[in-house]
Hints:
The structure holds two protein chains of two kinds. Chain A has a two-stranded antiparallel sheet. Chain A is mainly alpha-helical. Chain A has helices at about 5-30, 40-55, 65-80, 90-115, 125, 140-160, 160-170, 175-180, 185-205, 215-230, 235-255, 260-275, 285-290, and strands spanning about 130, 135. Chain A has 13 helices and two strands. The model of chain A is unreliable at about 290-293 (pLDDT under 50). The longest helix of chain A is centred in the first third of the chain and has 29 residues, at about 5-30. By secondary structure, chain B is mainly alpha-helical. Chain B is built from 16 helices and two strands. Chain B has helices spanning about 15-20, 25-50, 55-80, 90-105, 110-130, 135-155, 160, 185-205, 210-220, 220-225, 230-255, 260-265, 265-280, 285-305, 310-325, 330-340; strands at about 165-170, 260. Chain B is globular and about 55 Å long. The chains are: A mainly alpha, B mainly alpha. At the A-B interface, helix 4, helix 10, helix 12 and helix 13 of A face helix 6, helix 13 and helix 15 of B.
Amino acid sequence: xxxxxxxxxxxxxxxxxxxxxxxxxxxxxxxxxxxxxxxxxxxxxxxxxxxxxxxxxxxxxxxxxxxxxxxxxxxxxxxxxxxxxxxxxxxxxxxxxxxxxxxxxxxxxxxxxxxxxxxxxxxxxxxxxxxxxxxxxxxxxxxxxxxxxxxxxxxxxxxxxxxxxxxxxxxxxxxxxxxxxxxxxxxxxxxxxxxxxxxxxxxxxxxxxxxxxxxxxxxxxxxxxxxxxxxxxxxxxxxxxxxxxxxxxxxxxxxxxxxxxxxxxxxxxxxxxxxxxxxxxxxxxxxxxxxxx
Amino acid sequence: xxxxxxxxxxxxxxxxxxxxxxxxxxxxxxxxxxxxxxxxxxxxxxxxxxxxxxxxxxxxxxxxxxxxxxxxxxxxxxxxxxxxxxxxxxxxxxxxxxxxxxxxxxxxxxxxxxxxxxxxxxxxxxxxxxxxxxxxxxxxxxxxxxxxxxxxxxxxxxxxxxxxxxxxxxxxxxxxxxxxxxxxxxxxxxxxxxxxxxxxxxxxxxxxxxxxxxxxxxxxxxxxxxxxxxxxxxxxxxxxxxxxxxxxxxxxxxxxxxxxxxxxxxxxxxxxxxxxxxxxxxxxxxxxxxxxxxxxxxxxxxxxxxxxxxxxxxxxxxxxxxxxxxxxxxxxxxxxxxxxxxxxxxx
Lengths: 293, 347
């Protein structure tokens, strides 16, 4: 294992973390909601890919055709029925609701699909390419490239489209933009739907390379939180860069640290960032102290 | 009702006014606490004498009392002071480990517990202190990560913690090691801790420190401008909350008699203290008590009636429904009903 190999694997892993983190950070930036149930949507995306692969055979990535519209609708409905009702509730309540949602979804999946590990068999995605001494899994490469493309597309859309500008404005000041006559409630729905869609897409992309079980998403999304905090809560570019950093850190630390300490390393990074620079690399400084009323 | 320190008269001031302003805090407090304290002692004493032999009922009583104590401890920090900790399992778990380590190395539980509580309070407060400038979701995320780190460290430090195998409590009956055959002593001890936690909540609620905590929770900048020492108030709230959590943790390990990294620092524990406080009423002195009295017996019934995932599915759904439909908790809802009926002045 050369350091170069570790770096390459880390960056590939980081692309995936970026995709998960972008959904989290978009939802947080616009709605000020820490979505602890994000991981369950990643898991749902994985099960969707698995089910698609079982029913139609062949390429699990094609399930994205179904997953994208379904997750957008699900996110929109969830926002309307659940989070719209508690807009003025204190943040503890809102976080607790997403915890409750996470618990309910995870156990609903456990009941529906059982606790067994499932896996998608796909020779193409599970093959690997060799560049000199470096091995690159095709599945990881696809997930990485797709994540980067989706991320870049999202950043461009936020920059240049009308809705994108409105979404950025609502992050800046939701009251001011409401006074400008923009329908803020609709923006919340859009942001949540896009965030959930990104999570489900991440699930589809990693389905060929991970074992699928009801709890797999929860673990991934904790890393997503680390990434979001490192990049700066609410910053999409920060999510991309933070994802790469955490991916590389995890892959290098995972090689040099004993196995059972591996997990605590990125957590320690997380706490250090929160304490030393809570706004993250690209977040607005001071945001953590205002506390987002 | 005059305390010994009250002067009989003061020149130029009517005696009635003197007593009103100079009555000792203890007298004012005992007037508020008298009846609840007596009820609490009677209930715990009665439970100890009656259900000590029935392991099932005693188990529910012990669990309920434990969660009253643990949730009341959380409520001081998360409810009154508005510092939303999602990692209180850390203090309960570390204390359990510390006591288990001490007792398996020949200490008496009765000595190990006060030492652990003091040490945990100091260490825990120092640990949270740098996080005092984090607000809302940031503080919640930081505290959320603490038990996760503790889990991996506990697995790693297997020389002290027994690693992922866990640590077992001694099994031979012994007063020093807190091992008893019947359930009576357990109910009595955790009952005393639950009463202490509730009394501490009522004390805080009625005293200036409680008003300072609420002021810090509402708007710390305004509070500080009005002369409330925000950092000192946060320190007090953190220390009280950790001390009570630690005390509950020191007891809980004697009852379950086993500790391992995943159960000690379970997300479930961190969440349950929040849930019970919100169910009863966030930032109310009797909120966690009411929440635990309602949910913990129902929970053990649910777990028995719906084993496996369905139980947790219902639990999650309950959590969502609760926040959506009863955000003020049971006490807040009851208050609203009473004031609508004209039986109570609205707050």
